Amino acid sequence: MKFLHMELECGNRTKKQTVSNISKVVCIMFLIFTVTTALLKINKFKVAIGDLKEPESLPSTSLKKCDIFSGEWVPNPEAPYYTNTTCWAIHEHQNCMKHGRPDSEFMKWRWKPNECELPIFNPFQFLEIMRGKSMALVGDSLARNHMQSMICLLSRVEWPIDVSNTKVFSFKQWKYSNYNFTMANYWTPHLVRAKKVDSNSALFNVYIDEFDETWTTHVKDFDYVIINGGQWFLGPLVFYEKQRVVGCQHCDLDNMTHSNLYYGYRKVYNTTFKSIISLENFKGTIFLRTFSPSHFENGLWNKGGNCMRTKPFRSNETKLEGYDLELHKIQLDEFRIAKKEGIKKGLKFMLLDTTQAMLLRPDGHPNRYGYWPNENMTLYNDCVHWCLPGPIDTWSDFLLEMLKMESVTSISKNMIHS
Fold first, then answer.
1. Quick check: 248 and 238 in contact, CB under 8 A?
2. Are residues 245 and 311 in the same domain?
3. Which domain holds residue 383?
4. Residue 107: which residues within 8 A CB-CB, separation 6 or more?
5. How many alpha carbons fall within 13 Å on the CB side of residue 17?
6. Cβ(76)–Cβ(109) under 8 Å?
7. Which positions are catalytic?
């Protein structure tokens, strides 16, 4: 959203002049009035529109400090805000209702932070804030899952036009013409350069210190870049550093040193952030969307594991542990390091820390409802991706609230330094 740039004349002085106390008070009051007006501009799009169903009792958190990522899931009878019959953007394997999922309660929850409220995603507000801007979602199939969720949520305002330069499904660009807003998806499951060893193997060579130019060469002109990556690092990998093998993960190769997964993962995020910070003329905001836990029970993903729960956990019923905990910690560590480096170039880093919220949603996965039971192919129960509609829609609640807070902060800084 673009705001008028206003000059504060009351801040000027000469050697022979001083600003009176009254003038100072007037300046402060004017600053408060201007920021408040900007907030009203942001909130004016929260209108009572029949099919929007946004709870009017949920005020924005933008006016006060609050950890929006710590909380509980609470019932939301107004949800969902779209269906599998009203949105064409849902991937077949996440179209749970189409494929016969018998329960629907998993769609009727919202995230409630412990110390404040998180408003339901408002598509009018989001598109107004993003007017004339662009956003890239970079990462694995969960980035695509998120993008398709956003397309469905935004469909109440406008359907996008496909402006992709390729027919490859994992490299799509969509434009919202009425708002001049472009949203793109870049498929890069390991974030850095990686190559499948052969077509008959699940083994990947991952070059943990090399940029993946399939996306790094395309995002420099985007206003917002959302990065994610995690689940693909739990499969069979051979790690390369400085063009030499430094170890592997579940590779089952002779004479191969098994490297610590966490070393490779940390190095990947270090390289990923460097690849963005080093982009010439990049002035955008970088979001890190943190690790999304899977919820396999009764076996591993390829050993009959499933996720058949129908309700969320309470926060005291489970906790982040094992590799989920370690991968999340690594992300936070590398994010802090990158944020400090980014500040030197005037870049903004924001943490979209969805891990705890998604840990509590074992009920939100497709499980066996991502395909027809009689399909003549081998498909495993999916306890990684998220049904649409479903819990992943809340990622856009988080994202919009962070964009609003960023807008208010930017306005305040511009006013102070004017």
1. yes
2. yes
3. 86-105+119-396
4. 79, 80, 387, 389, 390
5. 7
6. yes
7. 141, 382, 385
CA distance 316 to 205: 39
Q: What single letter denotes the amino acid at residue 51?
A: D
**Residues in CB range of 397: below 8 A, 6 or more apart:** 110, 111, 118, 119, 120, 121
Q: pLDDT tens digits, residue range 164-212?
A: 988 777 789 999 999 999 999 999 999 999 999 988 888 999 999 999 9
Please say if the pLDDT value at position 300 is more than 90. Answer: no
| Amino acid identity for residue 278 in this structure | S
Residue 264 amino acid letter: G
Looking at the fold, whether 16 and 130 belong to one and the same domain comes out as no
CATH number at residue 382: 3.40.50.1110
Same domain, 33 and 137: no
DSSP state of 247: E
- The closest alpha carbon to 366, from 312, 298, 286, 306, belongs to 306
pLDDT band at 415; cut points 50, 70, 90: low
How distant, in Å, are the alpha carbons of 37, 181, 323 from that of 3?
Answer: 10, 17, 44
In a domain, 50, yes or no: no
- Range 343-349, long-range pairs (CB < 8 A, 24+ positions): 345/277, 346/283, 347/276, 347/277, 347/282, 347/283, 347/284, 347/285, 347/286, 348/285, 348/286, 348/406, 349/285, 349/286, 349/287, 349/288
Taking a C-beta distance cutoff of 8 angstroms, is the pair 241, 305 a contact?
no
Nearest residue to 390 via CA among 169, 60, 95: 95
